[in-house]
């Protein structure tokens, strides 16, 4: 799934079943390494940080004066 955030994109993929943080970490580290190897601009602090929470689809980025993805009234 690709979500346009207003300052870039969030890319995530679903698993078919729940996995533990210990099982997840090698996948996260692999994604981080792939981003580096291919020169992708990925937030290196977030790519393999299980405490980081993805903003759910339908919510808005409030880093600016007006949330990205919404029009001022």
Overall structural class, as computed from helix and strand content, comes to: alpha+beta
Please provide the ordered H/E string of secondary-structure elements: EEH
| N- and C-termini, Cα separation | 29 Å
Residue-averaged pLDDT: 76
Task: Tell me the total number of β-strands.
Answer: 2
Strand order of the largest sheet: 1-2
* Approximate strand percentage: 5-15%
Oligomer: single chain
Low-confidence stretches: none
Tally of helical runs: 1
**Quick one: overall form?**
globular
Q: What gyration radius follows from the Cα positions, in whole Å?
A: 14 Å
Percentage of residues assigned to helices: 10-25%
Structure overview:
- The protein is α+β, with helices and mostly antiparallel strands and 73 residues long.
- It has one helix at residues 21-37; strands at residues 2-4, 9-11.
- It has a domain at 16-52.
- The chain contains 1 helix and 2 strands; from the N terminus they run E-E-H.
- Strands 1-2 form a two-stranded antiparallel sheet.
- Strand 1 and strand 2 (9-11) form a beta hairpin.
- The longest helix is centred in the middle third of the chain and has 17 residues, at 21-37.
- The mean pLDDT is 76.
């Amino acid at each position: 799934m690709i979500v346009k955030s207003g300052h870039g994109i969030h890319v995530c993929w679903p698993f078919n079943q729940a996995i533990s943080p210990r099982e997840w970490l090698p996948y996260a580290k692999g994604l981080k390494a792939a981003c580096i190897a291919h020169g992708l601009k990925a937030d290196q602090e977030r790519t393999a940080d299980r405490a980081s929470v993805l903003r759910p689809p339908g919510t808005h980025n409030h880093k600016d004066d007006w949330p990205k993805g919404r029009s001022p009234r």
